[in-house]
Amino acid sequence: MVHKGDETMTKGVVLITGASSGIGKATALMLAKEGYRVFAGARRVEKMEAMRAANIEPIALDVTDGESVAEAVRTIMERAGRLDILVNNAGYGLYGILEEVPHEEAQRQFDVNVFGLMTMTRAVLPVMRAQGGGRIINISSVAGKFVTPVSGWYAASKHAVEALSDALRIEVAPFGVKVVLIEPGAIRTEFEDTAVQQLESTRQMDVYSQMATKFKTLVQNNYRNAPGADVVAKTIVRAVHAANPRARYAFPMDSRMLILVRRLAGDRMIDRLLNRMFVG
Ligand SMILES: NC(=O)c1ccc[n+]([C@@H]2O[C@H](COP(=O)([O-])OP(=O)(O)OC[C@H]3O[C@@H](n4cnc5c(N)ncnc54)[C@H](OP(=O)(O)O)[C@@H]3O)[C@@H](O)[C@H]2O)c1
Hints:
Layout lengths: L2 E2 L4 E2 L2 E5 L4 H12 L3 E6 L14 E4 L5 H15 L4 E4 L14 H29 L2 E6 L12 H21 L4 E8 L6 H12 L6 H16 L5 H12 L6 E4 L1 H12 L2 H12 L2
Parallel strand pairs: 3-4, 3-6, 4-5, 6-7, 7-8, 8-9
Antiparallel strand pairs: 1-2
Helix pairs in contact: 1-7, 2-3, 3-4
The chain binds NADP nicotinamide-adenine-dinucleotide phosphate (NAP).
NADP nicotinamide-adenine-dinucleotide phosphate (NAP) binds next to α1, α3 and α5.
């Protein structure tokens, strides 16, 4: 895919949401190095200024704000004249005990991870349909397939991303728009701190203390040895390059294994395992 932008030949024009840190930032840097024209969107636009040195164009973007989303797409169309790839990456983890998480926090989780992703998607589809094609890469999670206690709202948001992507993939196929899901496991980014802070700030009742502590310890152990964002960025680049991309890419290997175990084991077996890990 080689397109003439306003002044340079590029492999294609990409918008990555949530590019101020972690997976989004790593993907922006990798795609820019590969010769794509990359627009990096996030709320903390000042954090992305240094990325200009890598030819990346930072854009102020809050995916929960329809006007901000429309403005970002307008800016890209004015500057580059097209938009080939959207990486819907902006998101965070709301960990918390379901009885304790306030409605407003749950709503915010869906506003960013689900409705934000769809607001972005609806904003770029008219452009992609008019161009006769494009690619939308949605960052889901192993939590989109495998639910544990204390991750209920986050897992629900990623299950929603999975369902919406499966529907969208068929709806937009006739227009040459391909929809891909990426399902990462634990990756060392700002994600862990944010998610654990969410758990701690919503904690209230003693009756759930043991479960919350066990969950937090498990998360901290998982993340201690987790790989960095580059492994997911490489998978996203693979999905960008593939002429015929798969519907989903689970990475790294532990994510693929967990998803496979969930598919093969029955509810009773999974519940027994989770009870042993988090209850008794
Ligand atoms: N790290 C993991 O273990 C892991 C595993 C599976 C899936 N994921 C998924 O990977 C994606 C990226 O997470 P990460 O690990 O790279 O975490 P991260 O380092 O915390 O990055 C999250 C990014 O999302 C952006 N963001 C948050 N709210 C936003 C909003 N309303 N509008 C625009 N941008 C927003 C943040 O930027 P601003 O705050 O500057 O806006 C930040 O750039 C998320 O969807 C996450 O669920 C992560």
